[in-house]
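Worked example 3. Consider a protein that binds dinuclear copper ion.
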Amino acid sequence: MKIYNHLLMTMGAALMLVSCGQQNQNSTGALSSSAAEKVYVAPGEQDEFYAFLSGGYSGNLTVYGLPSGRMFKEIPVFSQFPTSGYGYSEETKPMLNTSHGFVPWDDAHHPDISQTNGELDGRWIFINGNNTPRIARINLSTFETEEIIEVPNSAGNHSSSFITENTEYVVAGTRFSVPIPQRDMPINEYKSNFKGSLSFISVDPEHGHMDLKFQLLMPGFNYDLSHPGRGKSHGWFFFTTYNTEEAHTLQEVNASQNDKDFIAAVNWKKIEEYVNNGGGTKMPANYAHNLYDEGTHTATTTMYKEVLTVDPLKVPGAVYFLPTPKSPHGCDVDPTGQYIIGNGKLSADLTVHSFDKMIAAIEGEKFDGEAYGIPILKFEDVLAGQVKSGGLGPLHTEFDGNGNAYTTFFISSEVVKWKLGTWEVIDRKPTYYSVGHLMIPGGNSRKPFGKYVVAMNKITKDRYLPTGPEMEHSAQIYDISGDKMELIYDFPTHGEPHYAAGIPAEILAPKSQKIYRLDENEHPYVVKTPTDAKVVRDGNEVHIYMSTIRSHFTPDNIEGVKVGDKVYFHITNHEQDFDVPHGFAMIGQNTSELLVMPGQTKTSLWEPKQVGVWPFYCTDFCSALHQEMQGYVRVSPANSDVELKWSLGE
Ligand code: K7E
Ligand code: CUA
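Given these inputs, the predicted complex is written out as structure tokens:
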């Protein structure tokens, strides 16, 4: 307890330092002109890497270039996005369905790019929604969210979404333990009654489609972060835990009592075999699976009613606990798969476990008791080494593929570079300020590209011109090609990036899709040629089959719509040129505009409430005559007999 109090005081002091002590510490000019050259990507030239930064509470994913720090795109994932109409258009609304109904927001933390043989293959990127537990898959040729699966029996889906080295599974662990199945019970009966679920979601190797294969029901700890084994440890997955005390109140104090929490080592191959042989128990659960179809440009939702659960005690030899000091946060595995790093956030030292020693300890039954029947391995028998870092508040570690590791320290605001195997600290550089995750392209794979590290900071303060009380979070790029790290650039981010994933541009850029082919468009309301444009009434629903091309809508004038109608504008963009979208906006609609890409069909719902003649227009400056790209809808009283008609050029 004494140590704990001391740590709290140190944390407090360090935080104050961040708050008021570090202003302009960098004013000596960290950037030499050679540093400027390192990040300078001349006009018309392109970056070497893509970086995908999670958007945190924006619910989205942002795409940047490295080393320029230029933002290329925000990909909507868990949040409605008026810029494109995602989550507002009829086609994409189902993407945000859950067992709790339509949930148009989430908190996205950890993107991870698909892998083949432990190397980035650039097909998909996965990301977790924390708050209403979900995992999303984004297609990396269209940069569109294609699939979102809800994770039942989970709460605070945080140790997610990390993938195994052949993208067999995307794995999602619960941060908060809950009653499973959910039920009405007193909160103070948490201990030994709540459970933590670790979900293994299989990924179809061809289409990427996700399927919740099984959930491991673990003791009621908090499962904070995770990473897959790779190489020799492929087949295992590692999760940090905290609150092994199973406290249900004032966790700040009560979840910091144990000197050591655990890293849970899960042999998923063993459990997979058990499940494939009919093992596990089906349990009722409600969850949504939302899938976007590329042909119809439309998402559909399937609701599931049960899930396969596995009791770890039924699969002997599948789960072990590795004691790890002081409420570990990050859980990282080096490129060889030998070292598992757990960073106790209340500790100064980093704990490194050895996979080989773990296997030997399991075989030698070097146990130090058990927790709910799960064997606890002896700390000394699995420990590879400890890094005496001299920093405070270690969080996350990445690797450069040259035998070095880089760990962030939140409290002491720095990145520390150290050597795997000797555990010696090689270099340390300040961050501005209070760094969370860091990212090296491919840093979570067998083959990192150790040229840059991007630090994602929680506090911005004086790094940019002030923008009122709210500042965007700041990221920083360090050149790590030499022995010493060199800070070469700061750039603002969007939302709150937690983790990120980077990949060489040469893997993604050549396969980036340029248009959707109109002849492959299978949308039920597609208009393949302007002569097919029409307006159809079905009761009080009016379906407008509309096409766009520079610079008009077909049709552009519509009459016979009535107050109380539900008017669906189904807009097909007839352009087949790269980067020529058209937009659509209707006065008074209770949704956003739409941005329709070439060859695509999107639908906007409008429910007119007043009679009149109401305009719509194209929102994207698509041509010299973009301002002429407009039309009218005549709205008559509910009982009117004005006939439905539509026209262009009449
Ligand atoms: Cu450390 Cu959500 Cu990965 Cu933030 S988490 S920093
Ligand atoms: Cu189409 Cu502006």
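Take a moment to read the result before moving on. The longest strand covers residues 281-293. DSSP finds seven helices and 45 strands in the chain.
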